[in-house]
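Backbone-to-sequence.
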């Protein structure tokens, strides 16, 4: 964001007791560095692993968070593959505090094709198991998950993908949706 935006965030962060979280729309390590140094503008940074450059970039952002004593909580709205990648970042980052995820319920939990990300978890051969708010890090090859590719074709017609929209003012600062 602009220097004024960062200054305003930092002032808000310092003046209130409620922890602030930001970063869902940041795209580069430089943008995250600007939010962390010389002084953090929030208590939690939320990189979207699918937008910042993948697992390696997420781990590097996590290292910056650790150095700045800021928590890391990857933003994760896009389903099970992104969730698996975010869990790999979580496992590699001491700054990781908690992990955002869509409901893991799948079709049995109320998700339907075209009705949100929940059904996408049905695409996995082995679902993620949640126990007491914790999820084990997958330990298989790659991301540790196996996607049932034959199910993707069945869901593609009902699914309406949309790229993330970044809203900006003419000066380049972030705007509200």
């Amino acid at each position: 964001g602009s220097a004024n935006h960062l200054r305003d965030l930092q002032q808000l962060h310092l003046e209130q007791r409620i922890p602030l979280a930001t970063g869902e729309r940041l795209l580069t390590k430089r943008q995250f560095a600007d939010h962390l140094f010389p002084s953090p503008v929030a208590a939690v940074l939320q990189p979207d692993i699918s937008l910042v450059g993948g697992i390696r970039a997420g781990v590097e952002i996590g290292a910056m968070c650790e150095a700045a004593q800021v928590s890391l909580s990857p933003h994760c709205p896009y389903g099970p593959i992104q969730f698996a990648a975010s869990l790999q970042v979580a496992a590699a980052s001491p700054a990781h505090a908690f992990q955002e995820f869509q409901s893991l319920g799948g079709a049995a939990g109320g998700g339907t094709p075209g009705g949100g990300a929940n059904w996408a978890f049905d695409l996995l051969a082995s679902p993620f198991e949640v126990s007491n708010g914790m999820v084990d890090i997958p330990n298989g090859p790659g991301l540790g998950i196996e996607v049932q590719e034959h199910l993707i074709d069945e869901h593609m017609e009902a699914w309406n993908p949309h790229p993330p929209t970044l809203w900006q003012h003419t000066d380049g600062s972030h705007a509200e949706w």
